[in-house]
Structures are given as structure tokens and as C-alpha cells.
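Final report, section 2: Outcomes. Of the targets proposed, AA9 family lytic polysaccharide monooxygenase is the one most frequently requested by collaborating groups, and we therefore present its record in full.
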Amino acid sequence: MKTQALILGLAAAPATLAHTIFSNFFVDGVDTGPGIAMRMRKDPATATYPLNQLDSNNLACNVDGDKGVSRVQKVRDGATLTFEFRSWANDPSKIPMDKGHKGPCAVYLKKVDSAINDPGYGDGWFKLMDDGYDAGSGQWCSDRLIDNGGLFSVVLPKGLQGGAYLARPELLALHAANAGDPQFYTGCAQIFIESDGNLVPESTVSIPGYVKKTDDSVTFDIYNRDNSEYTIPGPPVAKLQPRGAAAGNVNRVAAQEEGLRPAGCICENGNWCGKEVPDYTDEKSCWASAENCWDQADGCWNSAGPTGNEGCKIWQTKCEGIQSQCRAKNFPGPLNKGKDLTPQRRTIDVGLVLPTQGGGVIDTPKTDAPAEAEPTPTPPAEEDSPVEPTPAPSAPAYEPEQPEQEQPEQQPEQQPEQPQQPQQPEQPQEAPAPTPEVTITQAPSEDNAPAPTPMSCPEGYKCVTKVETVVKTEVVYVTADAANVRRRAHGHGRRRMH
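The predicted structure is given below as C-alpha cells.
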């Protein structure tokens, strides 16, 4: 039976294994916004890379995760948190993760003085839930996450001590664990729990430190062992107790002060916020406001991370509209002053809820309203304008070239498979070989990852090991020329003033 399980597992494995990234989270079914209040790897080209150096501080909140972002998400006591994983951070239409990435998942919390300033790594973490392999269905937590569109949820225990926390979802892929390459996927959400409760964990653990490279949980051979014997890494789900000696001790927490949405914010992209430009009443002040708009656009593009730049595009359209008004001498302005351009947040059916006591899955009832589709940003309408806005020559300069998501077609010949089609097994075109042939693909992992080692081959089968090669694309954003283009775009109007 073990040999049969190995054959089935290998036959289903695609030639290219898609990695994943924690890209979004929801509070009570409402999207907080892509990348908002989240720590993740900033480089889009490597954002989905796994972590396998178990003694690295990166294991806490990922590469770049030791530095907080400017936003902190407010969360009510007992709220439902939903974590979204994607194979492409800025494209929810792609698969969440390749089905070959089988393994457990968990959620950790860390109480901190500041969700922005705490480095994340170190002691203070406690496990809120975990979920591994279900022998009845033959599924791992990763399988259930994929079936649920990359989403899994957990309900916060009612009465947790209020204040700032880091919330850390964790996926562990075990497809190469027997070759010394366990692959962790994680990140951290910065949250503030509004609660006057006093429940705290009995004990906490350090990340890194909560799992070692020799542990069975990260070396487990899912192909040749009974998966029902698997033990999830890390501590057990934490037991909560009242803080202090007296059970009636109540924690009085001040209102959230850090990480709030900035006053006057009318457009968001990740943790960047655009604010309304100064009023203008003549041509000179109009061009000054246009320059202010484009300066803010620079900040948006420069800060855009793996989750994309849709908010920057919306803001850029606003800047182009102001330029059009300046050329047409259409004053005063700005039009639609103070209008919030941020698209309406998605709402979802929570679906898969993982219990805080570990083991098993609770499927919550669906809501009456269907989940809304990903909103398509619409540019602000230039109402009351006698002149139809025309695209400004400067626009292309403010949209940096994004790495082509479909570039695997241009990769070296040893990578014929495209990452966006990981579920299509290779179709042999030649005559069948005398013995069945099975392909084992080792996906690349973190920098300095151990070289893949051959996996055992079932008797009567010919196994071929293929090693993926990753070509890293460096993207350089240049803003100096963009500023010159902007000045050329409206310089003529300024010359007329003089």
C-alpha cells in the first residue's frame, strides 16, 4: 500500500510546482485591502519563495518581516480572521498553491507593545490553532485550503487581552521534506484587538526556535509513511488563562493610537495613502497642484509591493485629470474635492474555519449574499469639465514595468512547463517505454537551500528526477525621467504665464 501511495503521489505531481504567499486577510469576511497592515517579502520576483532555514529570524514574519508597516488593522473581540494565500500576489485568479504542496497549517499570535515597531522574531508566540492530515478524507490542511480558494479562517477566542498583536498564518509543504527541504510559507498581519478581556496564554515559544531541522515534523516522508502518523510542528494549541492572580482581573486597554488610516486619505495602495491636492483658482496654482499630485504618485509607485499597484493607477488618473483642467484653464478646483477613490472592499463567505482546539474542520454556513468579485478600479470622473481629459504624456513614465507574470515561456529550455498551468501533467508523445516512467520535480527553495536528493523509486518503475531552475528578474524603477516628462507635459502652460 505504501508503494501504491507513492505511485499515485508521483503521477499527480506536475513538472513545475507553484509556490504561494500570504497576500491578504479579512476581518469578519471583509477584505482589509491587498498588503495593508501586512509584513511580507517586498521583492515581487521572490515574494512567493518558501523559507527552509529554520534557525533564521525570517521564519517569524518572512524576509523583510522584521520591519513593520505603517498600518495596523482594528479587530473586534472574538472576530473571525481569514487568511488568503496566492501563487501570484497580485492575481487572485491564479491557483492558490500547487496541489503537490501537501502539509499542515497553523495560526500563531504574539502580544506586542507596538505592532509596528516589534521585530516579530523571538519569544512571545503562542499557537491559536493547527490542522494537519485527516485520515478519513485523505486530505491535508493544504488540500482543504486549495479547495477553498486559498482561504482559511480562525475565530479569535473571546476575552483575549486587548491591544496590539502580530497574527502569523503558517503553511508547511512537505513534498521535499524527505530530501531535507521543508518549505514554510508565512507572513504577519499587524492587528489591534479591541477587548477588555484578560485571557493570556499559559506559555509561549520563540520563533525561530519552536521547530528544529531534525524534528520528525519537518523531515516526514509523506510518500513512504502512513500520513496519519504525522505530528504537526511547534507547540500544542495554547491554553488560555486569566492574567494576574485574581480571575476577575480586567485588562483596561486604551483605544488604538498607532497605525490608523491617515486623516484625509482618499486613495490607498498597500500601506500608501494619497491626500487631496491643494485648492487652485488660476493656472499657476493649478499646475502647482498637478505637481503635488504627481509627487504623491511617485511615492505610491516606489512603495508598491508584490500585491500590485492598482491604487497607483487610480491616483495617476486623478493627476492626468488635473493636468487636463490646467490646460483647459478650467478653474477653480480640484473637481470632486475630497472624494475617496479607494475601491469598495471585497466581502466573502468565510467558508473554511479551523477550530482553535486543533484537529478537524468546521464548515460555517454560507451567507445569503454571494462573495463580491475583485473590484475593478474606476478612475475619478471629471465632472463639470468642458474639456474631455486627454492622456498626459507623462502617464507611461509613472507606471513602472512590472515583471511579466507569464515569463516562464521565455525561461531556459529545461523549463518547458508554465507556472500558470501547474495542474496539467506532462503528456508523453513518444511510444511507451518498456517500463512506466515517473517524474519527480524538486522545486527551488530559499537561497542556500540544500541540493535535492533522489527519492526512492517503486519497484518496476523508472523514475526521473528533474530540478527546477529559477531565473530571477531584477526590476529597476526610475523616477527622475518621469519628473522631467511631467514638467514637459505642462511646461508650455507655465511658459504662457510668463
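Residues 1-16, 357-458, 463-498 have pLDDT under 50 and may be disordered.
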